């Protein structure tokens, strides 16, 4: 069997779709997304017997039903010292397995390119995920193409790295030639591979119940493959580790050249997932040997990792080093507790992010009237420059904290401004805008919600500022027939001050609940003020029980504490403890 790959050598391209077209049982033709005037043909021979083995090993049914028609782009480029090379011998087998998996299950459509011009935003946007299948070396030096790749993932694209993807944008003796790529991936291979292709390693399934580990039934297993070891920026504080080397059952003798830090902690990760902004990353060190492409368990692991990256397989990503029993429980419930920036309104955004980390909270919400930082003394809004937004993004990445929500009082009705606001949201990986736009602007805003896949949560200030959105029945009425991306930002504090019972309001809104600004109040009237959760008059126990029963999953439970501003930290901690305790109780 032959797989023909056409690679582009020119910057002048014509853009067209690619598909691997099966012309006969013995020949597969792979065409690139781009094809220039000059092409270079690589021919790989795959025996029919191995083709059959791959077909027999791959899944016949998707682990999760695709939310839409998915498109996967695979890149195999190897470029060392400025010259292209053929790369790992496993590449064509993995390519074939990935194409057949997508085709046979209907989970995705596969495309190929080795032209880095595909990293341009206008080309990347057609794909749901990119796979670096055994790429290696410095693929490109163009800073714009590099930034575009990072932007694509941070704003919601998927990324899959197979084996030598961990050695991409590396070139001896300087490994981190594109440090931001290593940060996005989760680490650089800069410690070599202590075990060769023929060596047997024993794997420990670190997360037996994780959806991307479903193939292993919670049991360790042996495999023969050349796998890497990672050091900085590798850290369990940013990655959800799935598989590791079982160091008690694997040869760890001195001649294996294991990094001192890895020998000390025994933490040699093989597979992980992570959240990068809004993007989803899956990496596995497996993939050097061709025979893994017909190993049913490994192939299923690949498949589930791809479905996760595409956005169809829901899987937890809170880093392994940060997990607590309460956080594990909240993952199972589909709940995310985050700090709303208004809690620390007198601090900068950067200070708010730092406080969020110190409190052990994994998510944050933004606020348009908060200053960014001492170095950027401007309001956190869509008027910031791209360079300033990159500094904010860097802060979020370093903290390992995604920004799920962003409050902006009004989204004006002119299209130029709406586009700027949604571009701002895309660049920062924001999932939901909390706002109170004018009713006549809904059609335009809804169009952009669908275009950018960003939700609009209608906020309920008091009657003076929110004469319509104040009342749950009105939100149900005005969202009827609208996109499911539009619903309510349920501010319990403002409801309680107006005598509206938040429990009844949540029941009225049902699945139009987009996000919640969680409060408990001393009284259900205008005299009420914030008190630690579980100590006031709002029926928070009943609300949490109802949300679990109805399987309502807000984008974020926002901790917005609006009282005792100069000494609120003990009360904030008490509220976090309440939420964690109730999560554990409800999970039983």
Task: Walk me through what this model shows.
With 588 residues, this protein is an alpha/beta fold. It folds into 2 domains: 48-310, 3-Layer(aba) Sandwich (Rossmann fold), CATH 3.40.50; 324-587, Divalent-metal-dependent TIM barrel enzymes (TIM Barrel), CATH 3.20.20.150. It has 17 helices and 26 strands. It has a 9-stranded mixed beta sheet. It has an 8-stranded parallel barrel with strand order 19-20-21-22-23-24-25-26, surrounded by 5 helices. Strands 2-3-1-4 form a 4-stranded mixed beta sheet, with helices on one face. Helix 9 links the parallel strand 19 (337-340) and strand 20 (363-367). It is globular, with a radius of gyration of 25 Å. The relative contact order is 0.08. The model is unreliable at 1-42 (pLDDT under 50).
């Amino acid at each position: 069997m032959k797989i023909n790959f056409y690679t582009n050598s020119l910057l002048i391209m014509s853009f067209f779709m690619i598909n691997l077209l099966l012309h006969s049982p013995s020949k597969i033709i792979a065409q690139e997304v781009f094809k220039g005037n000059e092409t270079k043909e690589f021919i790989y021979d795959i025996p029919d017997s191995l083709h059959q083995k791959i077909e027999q090993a791959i899944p016949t049914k998707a682990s999760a039903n695709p939310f839409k028609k998915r498109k996967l782009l695979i890149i195999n480029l190897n470029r060392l010292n400025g010259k292209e090379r053929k790369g790992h011998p496993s590449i064509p087998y993995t390519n074939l397995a990935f194409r057949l998996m997508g085709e046979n299950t209907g989970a995705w459509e596969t495309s190929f390119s080795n032209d880095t011009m595909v990293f341009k935003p206008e080309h990347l946007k057609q794909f749901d995920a990119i796979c670096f299948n055994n790429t290696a070396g410095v693929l490109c030096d163009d800073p714009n193409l590099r930034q575009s790749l990072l932007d694509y993932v941070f704003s919601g694209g998927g990324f899959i790295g197979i084996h030598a993807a961990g050695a991409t944008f590396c070139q001896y003796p300087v490994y981190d030639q594109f440090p931001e790529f290593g940060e996005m991936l989760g680490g650089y291979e800069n410690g070599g591979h202590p075990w060769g292709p023929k060596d047997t390693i024993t794997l420990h399934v670190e997360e037996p119940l994780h959806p991307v580990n479903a193939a292993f039934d919670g049991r360790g297993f042996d495999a023969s493959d050349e796998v890497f070891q990672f050091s900085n920026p590798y850290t369990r504080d940013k990655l959800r580790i799935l598989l590791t080397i079982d160091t008690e059952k694997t040869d760890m003798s001195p001649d294996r050249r294991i990094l001192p830090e890895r020998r000390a902690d025994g933490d040699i990760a093989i597979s992980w997932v992570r959240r990068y902004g809004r993007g989803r990353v899956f990496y596995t060190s497996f993939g050097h040997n061709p025979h893994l492409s017909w190993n049913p368990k490994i192939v299923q692991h690949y498949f589930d990792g791809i479905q996760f990256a595409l956005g169809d397989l829901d899987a937890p990503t809170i880093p392994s080093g940060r997990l607590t029993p309460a956080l594990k429980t909240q993952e199972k419930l589909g709940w995310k507790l985050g700090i709303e920036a208004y809690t620390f309104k007198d601090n900068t955004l950067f200070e708010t992010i730092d406080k969020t980390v110190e409190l052990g909270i994994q998510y944050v919400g933004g606020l348009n009237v908060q200053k960014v930082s001492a170095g950027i003394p401007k309001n956190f809004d869509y008027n910031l420059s791209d360079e300033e937004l990159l500094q904010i993004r860097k802060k979020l990445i370093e903290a390992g904290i995604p920004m799920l929500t962003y409050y902006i009082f009004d989204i004006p009705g002119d299209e130029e401004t709406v586009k700027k606001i949604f571009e701002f949201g895309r660049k920062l990986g924001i999932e939901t805008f909390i706002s109170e736009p004018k009713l006549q602007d809904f059609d335009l805003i809804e169009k952009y919600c669908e275009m950018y896949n960003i939700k609009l949560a209608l906020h309920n200030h008091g009657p003076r500022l929110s004469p319509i959105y104040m009342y749950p029945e009105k939100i149900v009425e005005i969202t009827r027939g609208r996109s499911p991306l539009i619903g309510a930002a349920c501010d319990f504090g403002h409801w309680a001050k107006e005598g509206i019972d938040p429990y009844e309001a949540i029941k009225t809104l049902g699945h139009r609940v987009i996000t919640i600004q969680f409060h408990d109040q001393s009284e259900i009237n205008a005299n009420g003020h914030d008190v630690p959760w579980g100590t006031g008059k709002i029926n928070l126990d009943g609300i949490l029980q109802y949300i679990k029963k109805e399987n309502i999953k807000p984008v974020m439970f926002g901790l917005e504490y609006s009282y005792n501003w100069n000494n609120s930290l003990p009360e904030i901690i008490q509220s976090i403890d309440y939420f964690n305790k109730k999560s554990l109780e409800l999970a039983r």
